[in-house]
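User: Hi! I'm working on a homework problem where we have to compare a predicted structure to a textbook description. Could you give me the structure for the chain below?
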Amino acid sequence: MSNSTTLNVRYSAVSFMFFDKFKINGFSRTRTLSAGLLATTLLVSAPYLAKAAVDPAIAPQEEKIPVDMNAGTLIYDEKKQLVTASEDVEFIYGDRILRAQTVTYDLETEIVEAVGEVVILEPNGDVHFAESIELSRDLGDGFVKKLRSVLSDGSRVKASEGQRIGARETIMRKAVYTACEPCKKNPEKAPVWQIKAREVVHDNVDKSIVYDDATFEVYGTPVLYTPYFRHSDGTVDRQSGWLAPSLSFSSEQGFGVENSYYFDIAPDLDATLGARVFAQQNPLLLGEVRKRFDKAAVEFQGGITYAERDDSVGGVTVRTDKEVRGHLFGEGLLEINEKWRTGFDVETVTDDQYAREYDITSDDVLENQLYAERFSGRDYAAIRSFYYQDVRVSERQRDQPLILPEIEASFYGEPNQFFGGQWQANFSGLGLNRLENGQETYRLSSDLGWYKRAVMPIGLVNTVDLNARTDVFYFDGRSADLDDNQARFFPTAHFESRYPLARQFEKSQMVIEPKVSLTLAPNLGDDSVDIPNEDSQDVQIDTVNLYNANRFPGYDRVEDISRFTYGVRTGIYDFKNNEAEIFLGQSLRLEEDGGLFSEGSGLEDNVSDIVGEVKAKFTPYVDLNYRFQFDGKDFSSKRHEVSSIFKGGPITLNTNYLYASAFNTTDIPDDREQVNSTLKLQLTPQWAARTGAVYDFSSRNEGLRRAQIGLDYTGQCVDVQTIMQRNFTQERTGENSTEFFVRLGLKNIIDIQDQQ
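Assistant: Happy to help. Predicted structure tokens:
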């Protein structure tokens, strides 16, 4: 009598159920089946199938697990206690699939062995190939020969042999890892980069890959050796490890390299610690920490060094002694409840030159604030304190104000419920202290208003806006001949009408909209002259504030003059998000202003300057915005602002242009004219060249201010950015400098962001 039973199931998949308890020749064995262990479960079931073919008395008794199987032959050798599936074996257990020429399960040693063109398809998309695999019954331990894996993210791993130790570690020897796809024309060609190692350990718990005796190769040529290297396995969003390094060159600091280490401390806490090392300057240590709480979050960034610096004293460059230099930036937010939140912002540096010298920020004035806010329906309230640090070397205003506090509250009624309109109430308070001259200003303001909008049957849209504002000022530290107290009551009535006319075409719509407004305001005479102008200096007519009832941006000045404003907007719009639009407008004062507006504001004459805007958008090729200002009398140019993006084939051109005439009573006494343009040329799908320049046309500083050129490579598994930049004027010293940067990104190991 034969000791083996053969089942031929070549031509159809057999769906059957397995039991965790089965009986062979009267001997009972208990097996624990896991849904995640495909090969083990299938092979354990094989002897049951073989015996069931001989002894139909065996019947299901316990929990069943469905499995599909395809195989040419299934053999149970009772004498050797072996179960063998052969000839194009395929087991399907849930989302896992095992394929091999032969799969054997030894009932005595509980060893599973798959031989011949072994393929394992994982639910996450990973595919593993091997010459042979030998595993323990629970797949906890095992060995593999000639492993090749294609991971779901496109990465590839090869190893001469591998070992699995429990559910935690997989060890591969003589391994090669790359995230690059093989060459389609020559798959055997070495990839762009790969890492070869004596041993590679994949930790499934830490989600990391560790290399011992690793060599980094570029196109098969070794370029870097490290005895130890570690990176994420790509299955987690964040993990402790080294961030992308960057190389740089500066004529002032020499060659430099920056590298940082990221610490994934906890799900709600992480930190970064790194350094920039320079050839001609001491290193700069950098750090960042971020923490989240249930209803709060804080973030701090900082840097510190001990280095010299260049300063300009009387137009002469002076090299200072070494000193501690650094910065601290931070922000925080706390959600107190559904309506209240509080927070802070910190920006501080040790000296004026530091921020730009180390490329921390290009801001001229750093702002620090502490605030609390309340949101409730339409209503809003806030209290803030500000401290400013001016880091400009030239044209610097050292006496920056300390604001303690600034209070504002806004309340709005239900629309159309109060005499057919909506009431509103705004309140504001300010305490301002200039530390150098000792002058203090305190202000309380209230603004009560009523607003109504109505649309007439003919399509005319009318709005009425009535306001009554009261300001009370108190001053300390002023000249003896000026009052310490000042009060002002300022009512206004603002009426506005616009008449949109539309014409529908087959593929577009044309709109012409004339718009007029009448603003009535009392002339306060000299009541506001003695109030220091802290927040209303930078007033200039444009398309945004043309129809405003009060065109001063702050509280210290009010536009106490009645006027009539008119303009027209015309546009063509299609159904593909393309548009072309033009606007022209002007205002006419009904009385003399008495020198209220400064020269250059566009509002100094009874007839204001003409302002307008041209917009054109033709997706995805053109996006143009042009704003202009012409003199209301002789039509001479006062201001031109152009922002444009042009895309055509491989070319992308970004241009920003500004011309602005001198603005008296401000820190802009001269005409300004400057163009900033960048050009990107996509040479191939992988290669792109870009260049840019900033040119100053103003009479005092005419010349090229900055120029740069760069070459980028974006491949399937590697990114490289190179940038060379020449600064013809350093704001900290007035000297020129040259900078060069190289950034490298490797898929799954080092990521970089495009630095345009």
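For your comparison, note the following. Residues 395 and 621 are 40 Å apart (CA to CA). The domain at 4-241 is CATH 2.60.450.10 (lipopolysaccharide transport protein A fold). Good luck with the assignment!
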